[in-house]
Amino acid sequence: MANPCQLVWQYRLSISLIAATLGFIASLSVSVARSVNPKLAIPSPNLNQQEQLNSKMLQINGLIGEEQEIYQQMLAYLAEEEAKRLTFSVPVEFQGKTIRSRVLNNKAKVIALTFDDGPSSETTPQVLDILQREGIKATFFVVGKTVKNHPQLLKQIVADGHAIGNHTWNHHYHQYSPWAAAQELETTAQLIHKLTGVKTALFRPPAGILNNGLVNYAHQKKYAVIMWSADTKDWQSRRITVPKLINNALEDAQPGGIILLHDGGGDRSKTVQALPKLITELKQRGYQFVTVPELLDMPD
């Protein structure tokens, strides 16, 4: 597929050529009219002039055809790129697997920030602002019923370039039948796609519970079940302190690691306070930030 900038340039060039040709024909027609009688309506051109007009019209038709073809190429390219951007797939080796971190033999010092239980009208906008200021893309595991209440926030997360994962519809911890598990994941996936066009192969079970039927269904459907290698324990919102939250993440930070944070499900003010400091410290330690799909797609 051609480069989009090149397609735009070709499109503009075609428009310019058509405009120039139309201008030439207009001037030719006027000159014909004036050569006969400037006070009369434009007469029929002579044979030579008619041939010139026919030739120019053929050129115009050709230019219009080329312009339409270029325009269709542009639309197809942009649609393809948008579909790629909104599809959070995983390599085959991770499909139907449970992942806590990624072992990278190339020793790339990368780490993924992940946020659960949102979107939240209180916390998510603040988290997005911090990530934008820091130039970081993260991964948000969203709850279906919360997305239903805050659809614009999900759209903003996607518009900002972050990855999306499925975190069930209700965020319950009990045992699920295969049918109930399917409802939890599929209803959430359908709403995410309806609102944003996103298709995600990432799933995280509520509370990290692996044996209540949800993960079994997710594995059957080739989801990558994304756990974590560093738990900030920000879910202990009443007991955790900001320094402790940061230290929890730093103690277990590792290349290829996944850090668990929350932007919903309760009071996450301490997460908001800790996040800039945590990012600064990780940067000082040489870490670069990636989304979970980027982490899984990196070469060994």
UniProtKB/TrEMBL annotation:
Q: What InterPro entries does the entry give?
A: Glyco_hydro/deAcase_b/a-brl (IPR011330), NODB_dom (IPR002509), Polysacc_deacetylase_ArnD (IPR050248)
NodB homology domain location, by residue? 109-290
Query: Could you provide one GO biological process annotation from this protein's UniProt record?
Result: carbohydrate metabolic process
Q: Which PROSITE patterns match?
A: NODB
Cited Gene3D superfamilies: Glycoside hydrolase/deacetylase
Specify the superkingdom: Bacteria
- Care to name a GO molecular-function term for this sequence? hydrolase activity, acting on carbon-nitrogen (but not peptide) bonds
| Any Pfam family | Polysacc_deac_1
**Under what name is this protein listed?**
Polysaccharide deacetylase domain protein
From which organism does this entry originate? Answer: Coleofasciculus chthonoplastes PCC 7420
